[in-house]
Amino acid sequence: MGMGKPSADATWNDILWDGFSYAGPVMLILLCHEMGHFLTARWYGVPASPPFFLPLPLISPLGTLGAVIVQPRGFGDRRTMFDIAIAGPLAGIVIAIPVAWFGVQQAELMQYTASATSLTFGDPLLLKWMVWEKFGPLPANHDVLLNPLLFAGWAGIFLTGFNLVPIGQLDGGHIMYGLLGRHAHRVSQAFLLAGIAYMAYFNQWNYLLMVLLLLVVGIEHPPTTNDRRPLGWQRTLLGWATMSLFFVCFTPFPITITPPASEPAPIENPVLEPSDSDLQVRQSPMHQLNRNGKRKPPDFDREIEGLTSFDQSDEVQPAIMRFMNARAC
Q1: Domain coverage including residue 308
Q2: How many domains is the chain built from?
């Protein structure tokens, strides 16, 4: 998906409306996500703060770092922590999917060229399916133009997928700890190493800052008050189904900036040294006449007579070639 430039006829009212059309759905998705955590925590009697939004304009391409609630550690057993963790992504994705769907229905195709800088947003599998349902296979050199509603849906789906990364204090880390208990740290370590290897192999460092933050905070999950409390098969099935959303909501290349392709330098015509035949032509009487036109060469009559003669001698062909070369000069 690509982002186009604002229309030259757009007014400030149009720009503000587009801004609210994006910010409103994004905040609704984030609010529902965090309220899922908050209400479930209150249901179990676990202390939790109201949601806090983290705006980051001009720096973050999304304009925000998301939203958080603050919970003290050491409250709740394994099942309680699992329910609080899984409620957020499920509540957020329930809003993000219809927002993205209606955004795709309003979207248009755009044609891009290599002569301009392009800002491309990687499509998660879930959005790829929506685009295919709307447009089918895209024509060559075409992409879907992001509108504010579609951009909000993209952000909601991507943030949901990112939160499901099974590391540390992310929602995916909580859910994985509920599923595997103390063995979840092995999944976290393997996932982190695979992510670093992936970035190094493709030379894509979009998540370098996040990896550093995870290393500082820690990738291992702290124990709950009772890690032995079983989840039951219903929660286990729901947990693995929710973790599978990571593969359809996450994209390894969220934002790519492609500079314009440089035009190839023109190839100059090579300067070749004159051959012996060129020197003979330039020294011929016909060439001299063509250059100055002031005198009749001494052998001019013989040249013309040789051209009009049907003699089969060896001098006919050279005479014709000299005449044609002289005319070309």
Answers
A1: 276-328
A2: 2
Regarding whether 225 and 168 lie in a shared domain, the answer is yes
Contact 160, 93 (CB under 8 A): yes
Backbone angles phi, psi at 2, to 5 degrees: -125, 160
**Which amino acid, one-letter code, is at 136?**
G
Residue 253 shares a structural domain with residue 281: no
Amino acid at 314: D
* In a shared domain, residues 21 and 97: yes
C-alpha pair distances (Å), 222 with each of 52, 179, 217: 23, 14, 12
Distance separating alpha carbons of residues 295 and 258, to the nearest angstrom: 65
Length of the chain: 329
Question: What is the value of pTM for the model shown?
Answer: 0.74
pLDDT tens for the chain, residues 1 to 329: 666 666 667 788 888 888 899 999 999 999 999 999 999 999 999 999 999 998 888 778 888 888 889 888 777 889 999 999 999 999 999 999 999 999 999 998 888 766 556 678 888 999 999 999 999 888 887 889 889 999 999 999 999 999 999 988 899 999 999 999 888 989 988 988 888 888 888 887 777 777 887 777 778 888 888 888 899 999 999 999 999 999 999 988 888 777 665 555 555 555 555 555 555 555 555 555 555 554 555 555 555 555 445 444 455 455 555 555 555 55
Does residue 319 belong to any structural domain of this protein?
Answer: yes
